Amino acid sequence: MNNILPWVNAIACGLIALRLMTFSRKGEQHRPLIAVVAYLIVVATASVPIRFFFGDYPIHDISETVLNVTLCVAVFAVKGNMARMFRGNGKNE
Fold first, then answer.
1. Which Pfam families does the record cross-reference, listed alphabetically (predicted)?
2. Scanning 64, 68, 74, 92, which has its CA 20 to 30 A from the CA of 51?
3. What is the dihedral of CA 78, 82, 83, 89, to 10 degrees?
C-alpha cells in the first residue's frame, strides 16, 4: 500500500493542475480573486508530481492522498470552474 500511495497522490495532483490549466471561461465574467486562487492551486498541485518524479517528495500519507483525490474529483465535477465550486449549487439565494 505504501508504494501506491505516492503514485495516486502525484497523479491526482497532476490531474487537478491540468484540469484547471485547461479551463475555458467561454464568455463568463472574469473574477480576479478566483483566478488567483486557481493559479495558486495549479502551482501547488503541479509541484507534487514534478517533485515526486525527481525524488524530492519524501513525505506522503493517506490523509494527504485522500484530500488530493477528493479535490481532484471536485475539480472535475465542476469542470475546472473554481467559481462554481465556491458558489455551491450555482443558484443565487
1. Phage_holin_3_7 (PF05449)
2. 74
3. 30
